[in-house]
Specification:
Length: 514
């Protein structure tokens, strides 16, 4: 991560804590790494994101229904899904610093350093040649850039092969050959690379022992697969149909860093779409486009998203991609879209001995459906919103403000109700307005400090509208509505205030763009 990216992330972390979005978990006990608590504004934003996803998936599609499966499930589920045998990360310890790393991430970080060197060469050349600079030509001809690229390709190829073949010795050799040192201590004294299963386990009931071992789910998807027939039968669903679920997932990440990007306890919003075998690649394309469109309605900038198509497919997939977003630390995975074939349902048939098939009345035969999965991390989506909307502005009068320009339907507080001054009956009138609005929108009444400072506080938590009660209100029953982004004010009558604000903050305006 470059210094400016690192600074931006630090600012966002500080802002999130100061303004009640996100706190480090167990902070008074010095925290618990990679776990976070969402504060009063954070929980509101998170709930709105869940609602927007749910309405776009379940409410807007006649053939998608919801589910809320238990976190604890029968342990054989994780045998069938492959998580017990293969949900591993390769880890390596530094003998001197006693720090633990993911071996593949150490190598990827090394690759990023080479990429940064290429970027430096490019920016130096751009300065040297000025307007005549041709970036494509420079990239394809400059000897230093070409040598760096060759090195990147060679390392990437070896890394890929080592990971695919679980060749742990090769991973260690690569780390040693590249002279990769512990980023903390600088030591190159490494242990061998070992596989580390990412699932958390605990015991069921009061007896400990292997037979009572259960797992905290590492993905919500398996709860959907094992309920496939329950939902299909009870809802009389016909293929194609989808099951959507939002819930917590747990992974014992070896390196958990970059704030809420990689956590040990996080939330997923997943949808499994069951289709007729042979039609899966068309549906895969369909969901790729639909999910990208959903992201773009959030208004975070089209250029901040890209697809990353997987070239090395997992054994159960016949197509897969990520929707990547440009986080403060660069383009990273935000959502995965996978064509999972019939792998999961078939594996559960084998391990449970129960049929998980759909009877197609038109073809008069039963089959195991194929599955397209869309899987997005709610916390990553939260980080995308917060980091994109966090803005530091210098105003016309030279003063500074920090404003979080969240889309109004997602903002934690929709309107602040502010008496201009705390006298002449203005606070009473403002309280009356709060009572008028409170069953329709989440509002905040604030009468402390000068009006300018109150506006700044609301800007910092992303409140899109400030309703100010002034002396004119007492004369003609009108108030001003200040727009957070333009800072312009319009006067509206108190009688229409609720409907005006509801319209401005309605989720429907996002849904209609889909
Ligand atoms: N059921 C498929 C599945 O779980 P995944 O790519 O491992 O696929 C899906 O995870 C999404 O969950 C990711 O795109 C990411 O947004 C989120 N996610 C995964 N691990 C995470 C972590 N440790 N912290 C936060 N979000 C995570």
């Amino acid at each position: 991560m470059s210094q400016s990216e690192d600074n931006l992330l630090k600012k966002i972390i500080g802002h999130a804590k100061e303004y009640g979005f996100i706190y480090p978990s167990s902070e008074i006990y010095d925290g618990l790494s990679a776990t976070y608590d969402y504060g009063p504004n954070g929980v509101e934003l998170k709930n709105h994101l869940k609602r927007y996803w749910w309405e776009a998936m379940v409410q807007a599609n006649q053939n998608i229904v919801g589910l809320d499966a238990a976190i604890f499930m029968h342990p054989t589920i994780w045998k069938a899904s492959g998580h017990i045998d293969a949900f591993n990360d390769p880890l390596i310890d530094n003998k001197d610093s006693k720090k633990r790393y993911r071996a593949d991430v150490l190598i990827e970080d090394y690759l990023t350093k080479i990429e940064n060197k290429i970027a430096k060469e490019e920016s130096k050349a751009a300065k040297r040649f000025g307007e005549d600079f041709d970036l494509d030509q420079f990239r394809s001809t400059n000897p230093r850039v070409l040598a760096y690229k060759e090195k990147i390709n060679a390392i990437t190829q070896r890394l890929k092969e080592a990971l695919e073949q679980s060749a742990l010795k090769d991973l260690k050799s690569l780390i040693e050959e590249l002279g990769i040192a512990d980023p903390v201590s600088g030591s190159k004294n490494w242990t061998d690379v070992r596989q580390f299963n990412l699932m958390f386990s605990t015991e069921l009931g009061s007896l400990s022992g292997a037979s009572n071992k259960i797992y905290l789910r590492p993905e919500t998807a398996q709860g959907i697969f094992v309920n496939f027939l329950n939902v299909q039968k009870s809802g009389r669903m016909r293929i194609p149909f989808g099951i959507a679920q939002i819930g917590k997932a747990f992974r014992n990440e070896i390196i958990a860093r970059q704030f809420i990007f990689r956590m040990r306890e996080f939330e997923q919003m997943e949808m499994q779409y069951f289709v007729k075998p042979g039609e899966e690649l068309d549906w895969y394309q369909h969901w790729k486009e639909k999910r990208m469109k959903w992201h773009q309605t959030l208004g975070l900038g089209q250029d901040n998203y890209r697809f990353h198509d997987h070239l090395n497919l997992a054994h159960y997939a016949n197509a897969a991609c990520d929707i990547e977003y440009q986080f403060p630390m660069g383009f990273k995975e935000l959502e995965g879209i996978h064509s999972r074939t019939d792998f999961d349902l078939k594996a559960h048939e084998q391990h449970s001995g129960k049929k998980l098939q759909f009877f197609d009345p038109i073809e008069n035969k039963s089959y195991v459906p194929f599955v397209i999965e869309t899987s997005i991390g709610l916390d990553r989506l939260f980080l995308a919103l917060l980091s994109n909307c966090y803005t530091e502005e210098t105003l016309a009068d030279g003063s500074q403000r920090t404003v979080v320009k969240l889309p109004a339907p997602l903002a934690p507080i929709k309107a602040a109700i502010l008496p201009l001054v705390n006298k002449d009956g203005l606070s009473e009138k403002a309280q009356e307005l709060f009572e008028q609005l409170k069953f329709h929108l989440l509002c905040q009444y604030d009468s402390k400090d000068a009006i300018g400072r109150r506006y700044r506080r609301q800007d910092a938590i992303g409140t899109p509208y400030c309703v100010t009660v002034d002396h004119q209100t007492l004369e003609d029953n009108t108030v001003t509505i200040r727009d957070r982004d333009s800072m312009e004010q319009e006067r509206v009558s108190v009688t229409s205030l609720t409907s005006v604000l509801q319209e401005k903050c309605s989720m429907v305006q996002l849904l209609k763009q889909l």
